[in-house]
UniProtKB/TrEMBL annotation:
Protein name: Histidinol-phosphate aminotransferase
Recorded catalytic activity of this chain's protein: L-histidinol phosphate + 2-oxoglutarate = 3-(imidazol-4-yl)-2-oxopropyl phosphate + L-glutamate
Listed EC numbers: 2.6.1.9
Pathway info: Amino-acid biosynthesis; L-histidine biosynthesis; L-histidine from 5-phospho-alpha-D-ribose 1-diphosphate: step 7/9
Occurrences of domain Aminotransferase class I/classII large (ranges): 31-350
Modification sites for N6-(pyridoxal phosphate)lysine: K222
A molecular function (GO) term: pyridoxal phosphate binding
Organism: Halanaeroarchaeum sulfurireducens
Keywords of this entry: Amino-acid biosynthesis, Aminotransferase, Histidine biosynthesis, Pyridoxal phosphate, Transferase
Keyword Transferase in annotation: yes
Annotated CDD domains: AAT_like
Length: 357
């Protein structure tokens, strides 16, 4: 007995962790810094940590009440109805819910290339087809309606990543509105704002007051620092928000995750400290790296280094773990997460030395 044909499916390639690399090289984990996975450089929200501890004694209960509390807090934060908030097990869980709600077998989606692999993976899980639109280095990875309409052909879902991973570019809000206006009536425009707290641009959630063909994804993994709890949410149009009850996995957002998310949402000091540090780290890399960089609106910077595999491997042996972007189709680039001041300075110094050699 075998599973169904998965030959057209892709494997998600995650950034490697410190413990994994240290075991591979037979070295002390304390020697390494990891700047490969766009994690929060300051760690989790302290308020979230406290809520995790306090919620531990209640994990024998299903998370119905705390789920409702977090939904209410998010609805108030974004000035939408409770029904428009779709909690999920990470932002990728929201992608799955949207796929279940929107895709019939054979429907096509349009995803950025390069881009987050799970857009296509989720569509294929739901028996969809995957088409791509270009995000090109020749245009400094600029994002505009022209990118999308270069290949758009009536796909059921169009994915916009803003800020975009791994390049750091973003769609202006008016460009999102233009894309939604010009695509077919039955096309859903999904705006992935996983890095939304790190940009000065307004959220596409504001478009939902007037449109029923835009949905937005947000996460607690980045600015709030609780990636390990896998908590994300979608904000969807009111007219079809009740589909959530028919497509969600029961209690996919755990009691601990919901409690931590509720506390983190109110921890404005941690978010502000994080975003301030990210802005500093981006500017430091722009100024001090002796290699071409690209303007970023996320908590990372894309750097052109030549042979990304060789450079990232050499950096790893020097104790700095960055993301080789070959898996994104960018074999001459690495992505460096914004770390603490010490980590960022070390990464810049080590990379400059590697490139000089």
């Amino acid at each position: 007995m075998q599973p169904r044909d998965l030959s057209q499916h892709e494997e998600y390639v995650a950034g490697r962790g410190i413990e994994e690399v240290a075991r591979e090289l037979g070295r002390d984990p304390a020697e390494f810094v990891k700047l490969a996975s766009n994690e929060n450089p300051l760690g989790p929200s302290p308020a979230a940590v406290g809520a995790i501890r306090e919620s531990a004694d209640d994990v024998h209960h299903y998370p119905k009440a705390v789920h409702a509390d977090l939904v209410a807090a998010l609805a108030e934060r974004w000035d939408v109805s409770h029904e428009q908030i779709w909690l999920a097990n990470g932002g990728d869980g929201v992608l799955d819910y949207l796929g279940r709600a929107m895709l019939d077998p054979g429907d096509a989606v349009l995803v950025p290339d390069p881009g987050f692999a799970y857009y296509g993976m989720s569509a294929r899980f739901h028996h969809g087809q995957v088409n791509t639109y270009p995000v090109e280095e020749a245009d400094d990875f600029d994002l505009s309606p022209a990118n999308v309409f270069e290949t758009y052909d009536g796909e059921r879902i169009v994915y916009l990543t803003s800020p975009h991973n791994p390049t750091g570019s973003r769609f202006a809000l008016e460009h999102v509105a233009t894309i939604a206006e010009r695509t077919d009536d039955e096309t859903l425009v999904v705006v992935d704002e996983a890095y939304g707290e790190f940009t000065d641009g307004p959220s596409a959630i504001g478009l939902l007051d007037e449109r029923d063909d835009v949905a937005v994804i947000r996460t607690f993994s980045k600015a709030y620092g609780i990636a390990g709890l896998r908590l994300g949410y979608g904000v969807v149009p009111k007219s079809w928000a009740d589909a959530y009850a028919k497509v969600n996995t029961p209690f996919a957002a755990s009691a601990v995750a919901c409690a931590a998310g509720l506390a983190a949402l109110e921890d404005g000091d941690h978010v502000e400290e994080t975003t301030d540090l990210v802005r500093w780290a981006r500017e430091y890399m722009y100024e001090h790296l002796e290699a071409p960089t690209y303007e970023s609106h996320g908590n990372f910077v894309l750097v052109e280094v030549g042979d990304a595999g060789e450079v990232s491997e050499t950096l790893k042996r020097r104790g700095v773990i960055v993301r080789d972007c070959s898996s994104f189709g960018l074999p001459e680039h690495v992505r460096i997460t914004c770390g603490t001041r010490e980590e960022t300075r070390r990464a810049v110094s080590e990379l400059n030395e590697v490139l000089a050699e």
